[in-house]
Structures are given as structure tokens and as C-alpha cells.
Amino acid sequence: MKVRTAIAIVVPLLAVTAALVLGVVIGAGRFGTGFSLIPSWVRDPVRTRRTVVSAGLLAEVRDMYTFNTVEYVYRAVFPFDFLHADTSIELILSRLRGASGRIEDVLTPREYEHWRAWNLARTHRFSVSTDRPDFVVITITVRGGFDLAGTVWDRGIAAGPDEVATVIRTIGEPRDRAVAVQLPRATVTDVIIEDVDTARYRFPDFALQPAAWREIAGFVADAVRERTIAEGLLLVAEANGREFVGGMLQTAGFDRVQFIE
Predict the structure, then answer these.
(1) Torsion of CA 192, 197, 198, 201, to 10 degrees
(2) How many independent structural domains does the chain possess?
(3) Is 120 inside a domain boundary?
């Protein structure tokens, strides 16, 4: 597994944050929020024209709707990465005998994953023999970050001052140059199953019909998504997002950035 900080995918929040910061600064002067340190360039015509350029940039990137701050890349070997050594199909079957309710409620998460992988392998005629095992290798990329769709961050400078103040506002005395920010909750923004390049696939071929491939790839994608969450993907995504936005705001002139849950 590889973990990448997705620095290259920051354009949406960069534009939105810049627009909202500008809105906070201008709004403080025009709507009386108590922030009196209005830079002289806000009233400068040249800078005003630059504001229009920022608004145009925001309109161009808004369709992306997400701010990705980290990605985990897994190369999963099905079914063996999902058949766990601390359980067995015999143990699972013994637990299911006489049990009532849904299978996923009776079994632990690892047992249920093992059960699903074993059933898929059997359905599609994989040999799990240690002598001549059948397997396929699937590469999954899971991205974490912030879903901006429908939020004030998505609306940007189109949002009114009161609406903007719900996610970013100045706090304390003017001399404090402090700002409070509320980001959306970190989430899994993308789960991508990479296409198989047959010219570069170095593993033994295993013939699968398209429907079988989709079923197995879907299972692997779901399982990997849950693993990345358990391994802290959302915590990393949130920390990276705060670091990026906090750095932007400090560059914009704020001495203290407080993040609100």
C-alpha cells in the first residue's frame, strides 16, 4: 500500500478559500463585523479587477466539488488478501449454524469479509490450494478529503456575508488578526478501480467474464475502502486539509487560525 498526500488536487479549495477570505475581509469592512484592518489594496481598482479574475476561476473549478488531500493506493490479491489466517470457513460455518439474523450481524467484520471472499472465489471457480492457487491482482486508489457540493465552500463568493460567516469569520479583537474556520467533515471522496493493462500485468492469467470481474472488483473496492478508514485515512485527510487551509490563511495575513468542529 502507498499513501500519497494529494497536493496536486487543491485547486478547488484554493480558489474557494481565497474567495471566502476576500469575502471575510471585505465583509468586515462593509457589514460591520468588527474587523477594521482593511488593507488598502481592497479599494484599489487594479486589485478589484483581480477579484473578478478570482470569481471567474472559481466558476471554472466549482464542478469538481471535492478537495482531495490524501490517497491510499492498494494492490490487492484476491482472494488471498481477504482470507484471514485467524479464522477459517469451518469456524465461520460453525458460528452460523443455529444463528438467527443477518450474516453480517452474526460474524465479526473480519469473519464476514472472509466469508464473502470465500464465497466469491468458490462461485467463480478460484482454486485456493497452496500448490496451484488462482488469483487476480486489483489496484484500488482511495482518496480522502472534503466533499464541497452543496456547502458554502461550493457557493464561494456567491454566498452572502451571513452565510460565509458560518464557515469562516474573524474572531477576537482586530489586533488579534484571528480567524475561525469550519471545514466539512473529511470523507472518502473517490474509490477508483484501475483498468488492467494486459501488457504490464505480470501475474498468471485467470479467465473471468465481465460480470464476474465487476462483482469481484466491487467487493475488493468496498473492502479496501473500509480498511483505509480503519487505518486512519479520514484523520490524515482532515489533518492535511487543516494544514493547507491554515497555511493559506496565515499567508493571507492572519496570525491565528482556529478550526471549529
Answers:
(1) -80
(2) 1
(3) no
